[in-house]
Amino acid sequence: MESSQLSGLPEYVKIVEVGPRDGLQNEKVIVPTDKKIEFINQLSQTGLSVIEVTSFVSSRWIPQMADHTEVMKGIRQYPGIRYPVLTPNLQGFHRAVAAGATEISVFGAASESFSKKNINCSIEESMERFEEVVKSARHMNIPARGYVSCALGCPCEGSVTPQKVTEVSKRLYGMGCYEISLGDTIGVGTPGSMKKLLESVMKEIPPRALAVHCHDTYGQALANILTALQMGINVVDSAVSGLGGCPYAKGASGNVATEDLIYMLNGLGLNTGVNLYKVMEAGDFICKAVNKTTNSKVAQASFSA
Amino acid sequence: MATVRRVLPRRLVSTSSAGTFPKRVKIVEVGPRDGLQNEKNIVPTATKIKLIDMLSEAGLPVVEATSFVSPKWVPQMADHAEVLKGIQKFPGINYPVLTPNFKGYQAAVAAGAKEVAIFGAASELFTRKNINCSIDESLQRFDEILKAAQAASIPVRGYVSCVLGCPYEGKISPAKVAEVAKKLYSMGCYEISLGDTIGVGTPGIMRDMLSAVMHEVPVAALAVHCHDTYGQALANTLMALQMGVSVVDSSVAGLGGCPYAQGASGNLATEDLVYMLTGLGVHTGVNLQKLLEAGAFICQALNRKTSSKVAQATCKL
């Protein structure tokens, strides 16, 4: 044990599994509804406490999520596990609730250009939209999570200031989001920029209300996550098998793989409650369904070729 | 779902160190040796030479060129003398070669080697299975090399394998790593490269190992050599940098597999390492664009995809 100057890592890390939504959303092969349901049911048996199920977005934009209602209704909702869904607007929110959703998420961006390109409105306009959604959610005692995309860089604008991310995060937190997930959407961040970002955001939002959502496009995800843990963050988003590509960098990889994240956290002696082997099994299942090899190095090493 | 909360030993990592890094990092490029050694396809001599020349042009300060090992053991390295003689030796760049025994050392020197490397392991079982002797015996065998190298003013680098885990012994004690590292250092090795041979390490274990070794060997003489078998290499390397290590081994395109885990990946990719260091404002002297070109070249020659995520992201399909 070192001197008392050293602070420990968080004892427990909550993993938010976004494979069924963020992962599948970026996969070319459309997965049939029953396979999505089976996938989520398998994930529910791994010990994961939060599984992002689907997105109530128009099927015109995201064909993969067209079956959002059927998936939401079809999954087994295990007690103690939360199944948030994305709701980009009030219409999506009402549909989600009608389908049985008990937690929702809204997606903001720290870049004006990205916001306009992605959801066809300015950051301010999107915040006004989300206010409506979050207000309705709170009225019904439905928790709302806020995402901030492009937290460490934007495909259109390039660098993004920590101040801008803080401003957007504060807005989402202020309107009632219980947790803000800071997303390195195109995976360009490195530990230095992650540290600067968190130093800024943590001035306005308590660390327990923050999460990091790192894409592994440039192989930096685990290093960035380690930095976040060292700064006191204890909620990390990941996707089983590292599902999802990057729509902004052809051929690039997507989310950080849940298996590789768990491997690191286990090695660090941190509690996650998640069974790595069961996650690998779910990963194997979904990789067969999307017809691709896993992006998880742990899975690659464990399943002999 | 009820979860059992075990009381696990927590790896304490200083948050105050989350931001301190060396200003300069020396990257030791091991692609032509450690990388190629673990690739199935035999690469022609001319291709190896071209790769090394391209790596030199990318600004890497150290490029491990080859291994003077018997072709019986490592067919890929059979052309060691031709490669060493054939490469362009850029001023200011070092081209160390592996010398597993005195015969190899002599052949290396005859072929023009100006720096050599020797290998120890932190695991008795690994040493026994690999070269059929104990760790102590293996180090004794290098005595001859070290004496001759010292007389010829040839620097010797020492590698320690299995520092974070062994395919046979499992856990490896940091004290054992420190013992072997200390021996190599006191025998005359100027630098000790600590290798996570099967990539099983995680940042806390890296930290514990380095803490022990740093009691015996000054941090300026230490390097880390992380394999990415379980995706942990960059995070482990980050931890090492936070502890003050400023020499990192890596392999262009993340070449090499893992002989102990079929289908698994190998070395940390130099491109991904450079990306991180550049983002951290750490000076490496490496031109990423030229490095990417070298990676693309060797992957094409090997008929395989790159293991570097940076290369994958930059490549337009």
UniProtKB/TrEMBL annotation, chain A:
Enzyme kind, highest EC tier: lyase
Gene designation: HMGCLL1
Catalytic activity: (3S)-3-hydroxy-3-methylglutaryl-CoA = acetoacetate + acetyl-CoA
PROSITE patterns: PYR_CT
Homology family: Belongs to the HMG-CoA lyase family.
Keywords associated with the record: Lyase, Metal-binding
The enzyme's E.C. designation: 4.1.3.4
GO molecular function, one term: lyase activity
PANTHER family: 3-HYDROXY-3-METHYLGLUTARYL-COA LYASE, CYTOPLASMIC, HYDROXYMETHYLGLUTARYL-COA LYASE
Protein name in the entry: hydroxymethylglutaryl-CoA lyase
Residue stretches in coiled coil: none
Pyruvate carboxyltransferase domain span: 13-280
Keyword Manganese: no
Pathway field: Metabolic intermediate metabolism; (S)-3-hydroxy-3-methylglutaryl-CoA degradation; acetoacetate from (S)-3-hydroxy-3-methylglutaryl-CoA: step 1/1
Tagged with keyword Metal-binding: yes
Entries under Pfam families matching the protein: HMGL-like
Automatic annotation (TrEMBL), chain B:
Principal place of residence: mitochondrion
Keywords: Acetylation, Disulfide bond, Lipid metabolism, Lyase, Metal-binding, Mitochondrion, Peroxisome
EC number(s) given by UniProt: 4.1.3.4
Subcellular localization(s) per the UniProt record: Mitochondrion matrix; Peroxisome
Ranges for domain Pyruvate carboxyltransferase: 25-292
Transmembrane parts of this sequence: none
The keyword Protein transport is assigned to this record: no
The keyword GTP-binding appears for this protein: no
Catalytic activity of the protein: (3S)-3-hydroxy-3-methylglutaryl-CoA = acetoacetate + acetyl-CoA
InterPro entries reported for this sequence: Aldolase_TIM (IPR013785), HMG_CoA_lyase_AS (IPR000138), HMGL (IPR043594), PYR_CT (IPR000891)
GO terms of molecular function: lyase activity
Pathway annotation: Metabolic intermediate metabolism; (S)-3-hydroxy-3-methylglutaryl-CoA degradation; acetoacetate from (S)-3-hydroxy-3-methylglutaryl-CoA: step 1/1
Family classification: Belongs to the HMG-CoA lyase family.
Subunit details: Homodimer; disulfide-linked. Can also form homotetramers.
Full protein name: Hydroxymethylglutaryl-CoA lyase, mitochondrial
Species in which this protein is naturally found: Vicugna pacos
Gene name, Swiss-Prot/TrEMBL: HMGCL
